[in-house]
Design brief:
Length: 370
């Protein structure tokens, strides 16, 4: 393994300077992205690349903030972070990483639950500043930069009474959520986020040591689009923009119910798990169990307060929950239930699991005692 000295790093990342060749710099190299070699021999080499965009190095004053992820349980120290300002910055960064045999990671919203969007002694290609939006209202098609987070995307679409499925956490990167599937309040109504993805711009390896951007849609590189729709996080290329087929959504009814204490947990949980999958497909719900509270959230697309209360009556009839209902534009409602990042714990460890059978009473008791 070779060490990358400060002098060599500065020389390789300086705007206008040529990259230095450091073969075998780090084991692991670049991820096994799909390659586009059309019109270019797989053995033909590209000219030496230089890094462009907003470059952050270890000696820069903003390095600590630039290298920190949302989950501070995982801390990495990359050699350089490239905040892409345009697609060509990503092309240059991937080419540079290949030519110098530097391990790389791709980052958008920094919410990778295991810290996979960062790397020690490698390059982080950050697309979070690619925030373009182009919405064709008549066609209900939205092309957005890969740097948008979910709140920004929901807000932009809602301004035109349009929507696509996203997760509930606004600060999560839209691209990471979509490429991983994308599950949220609108899933039962509109499908997963990836179901609405109809195109993307993707930077792929090209030739022996280069990179290029390609457009993928249902008619061009359709196999790559198919792969991106749910299995695309860091697997097939670096996505720089996404195109969605949006759906009309004028308003929602947002219901929140709170049970103080956990005395009603068995009844609430069991009734919810047996009714939620089979209710009106416009209704998406989420149940949270805290140490001293049970919280139920529901979003009813194009529905009224009376409808929301009626559909959730089997659960709301248990105990004496406090219930509130808001009606409004989906962007306003979504923005309103966000929790500021500074109010969230800094360290998380997540475990997730899908289930296709109801939890038995014993399992619910385990949840209560956890």
């Amino acid at each position: 393994m070779h060490d990358l000295s400060r002098r060599k790093l500065l020389k390789a990342t300086a705007v206008g300077a040529g990259a230095v060749a450091l073969p075998g710099l780090l084991s692991g190299g670049t991820p096994g992205f799909a390659a586009d070699t059309a019109g270019w021999s797989s053995s033909e080499k590209h000219p030496p690349a230089r890094l462009t965009g907003r470059i952050v190095r270890p000696q820069d004053p903003d390095y600590a903030d630039a290298s920190l992820g949302w989950d501070e349980l995982f801390v990495r120290y990359p050699l350089v972070i490239v905040f892409a300002q345009e697609t060509q910055d990503v092309v240059n960064a991937l080419t540079w990483a290949r030519q110098n045999d530097v391990a790389l990671r791709v980052r958008s919203g920094r919410h990778s639950l295991e810290g996979w969007s960062n790397v020690d002694n490698g390059i982080v290609i950050d697309v979070s500043e690619l925030k373009s939006t182009d919405i064709d209202v008549a066609a209900r098609v939205a092309r957005v930069g890969a740097g948008l987070n979910q709140l920004e995307a929901v807000t932009a679409l809602a301004e035109h009474d349009l929507a696509a499925t996203t997760g509930t956490e606004g600060s999560v990167g839209l691209s990471g959520a979509t490429l991983g599937g994308g599950f949220g309040f609108l899933t039962r109504y509109l499908g997963m986020a990836c179901d609405s993805l109809i195109g993307a711009e993707v930077v792929l390896p090209h030739g022996a040591d280069g990179a290029k951007a390609v457009e993928v849609d249902l008619h061009h590189h359709s196999d790559l689009l198919w792969a991106l729709r749910g299995a695309g996080n860091g697997n097939f290329g670096i996505v720089t923009s996404l195109t969605y087929q949006a759906a009309p959504l004028r308003s929602v009814a947002y219901l929140q119910a709170t049970w103080e204490g956990l005395d009603d947990l068995h009844g609430v949980f069991d009734t919810w798990q047996r009714s939620a999958p089979f209710t009106d497909p416009r209704l998406g719900t989420q149940l949270e169990i805290h140490k001293s509270q049970i919280l139920l959230f529901g979003v009813l697309a194009e529905g009224s307060e009376a409808e929301a209360r009626h559909l959730l009556e089997p659960v709301l009839s248990i105990g004496s929950p406090q219930v509130t209902v808001q009606l409004g534009n989906w962007g306003d409602i979504y923005s309103g239930f966000q929790v500021p990042i500074e109010d969230e714990p800094a360290n998380w460890k997540f475990f997730s699991q899908f289930t296709n059978e109801p939890f038995p009473r014993k399992a619910i008791s385990v949840i209560r005692g956890f």
